[in-house]
Design goal:
Layout lengths: L20 H4 L1 E6 L2 E6 L9 H7 L18 E3 L4 H11 L16 H14 L2 H13 L8 H10 L3 H12 L6 H5 L10 H13 L2 E2 L10 H5 L27 E2 L5 H8 L1 H9 L4
Parallel strand pairs: 1-3
Antiparallel strand pairs: 1-2, 4-5
Length: 278
């Protein structure tokens, strides 16, 4: 009787769509005078300018292709090597024995570098993470209102722009020269923005009738509590009610300012939102 031994077939391995030889291949990138060897998928990010670049036909073959060797790297202009290193560090999980980047991980310079490149190259998830970490670490809240507006506009973060506007309009005094000619020219606001802020600050205030029981002492003004409610016990003056002294006195309604900012700057704020669809 003849015995037949069944053959054992080995299934053909299947590559995952993402974890394939194309995405995992090492490419070489030159930033300033530094060459980085990285997996292709870091730059082949959906929506980034690199994604389109990789879809274009590449001249040459083998190591003569751009990015295929240290001798023929992809050259990225206009970016600092230290910024790119921080970007890679934030994007790619590294082992504990990996050297740290020049910028202290989690510090202001580190997250600003990450945010700068995530904005430039439209890495939405990394942009969101950088913003969250900068908020969590109070990096932006320590800035002046003009610095908050500048950073928010530059890096497409509408919440920072709005917070800067709200802070300016909540001040007791708002001077034209402080907005148009600050210490740094980069922080100067355009005239349309200045006019809108001064309008909100000066015209969208609550008129208070003389002898109404509102407290206008300095501690209350400093805390933006001047028109919250009729005061029964002032934090600055104790139980004694104070009254306005001038018939034309106008005060800031601190609770209304965020809504006024949202209304008057709707187009700008929504435009910053549209940049990342966050």
């Amino acid at each position: 009787m003849e015995c037949t031994i069944p053959s054992i077939s080995t299934p053909t391995p299947v590559l995952r769509d993402f974890f394939n030889s194309y995405n995992m291949a090492t490419i070489y990138v030159k930033v300033e005078n530094v060459v980085f060897a990285i997996p292709r998928y870091i730059l082949n990010f959906p929506g980034s300018p690199f994604e389109m670049m990789f879809k274009l036909p590449q001249p040459g073959d083998g190591e003569r292709k751009e990015g295929a060797s240290e001798q023929n790297p992809i050259v990225i202009e206009g970016v600092a090597a230290d910024d790119f290193e921080a970007f890679l560090h934030a994007f790619h999980s590294l082992p504990g024995n990996a050297p740290t980047p020049k910028f202290a991980v989690g510090g202001e310079d580190y997250w600003l570098a990450v945010l700068k490149l995530a904005t430039m190259w439209r890495y939405g998830d990394l942009h969101k993470r950088a913003v969250e970490q900068m908020n969590k670490n109070a990096i932006v809240s320590r800035k002046t209102p003009l610095e908050m507006i500048y950073l928010g506009r530059k890096y497409s973060v509408p919440a920072w722009v709005k917070d800067g506007y709200v802070t300016l309009c909540s001040q007791e005094h708002l001077k034209l020269e402080d907005l148009a000619q600050p210490s740094s020219k980069d922080l100067a606001l355009d005239w349309k923005t200045i006019a809108t802020l001064l309008y909100i600050w000066g015209c969208e205030r609550l008129p208070l009738t003389i002898n109404k029981q509102w407290c206008d002492c300095k501690p209350m003004i400093d805390q933006n509590l001047i028109v919250a409610t009729v005061v029964t016990k002032c934090r600055g003056c104790g139980p004694t009610k104070k009254k306005t002294q001038e018939s034309n006195y106008r005060a800031i309604d601190a609770s209304a300012i965020p809504n006024l900012i949202s209304r008057h700057f709707r187009q700008e704020l929504s435009g910053l939102n549209d940049n990342f669809d966050l």
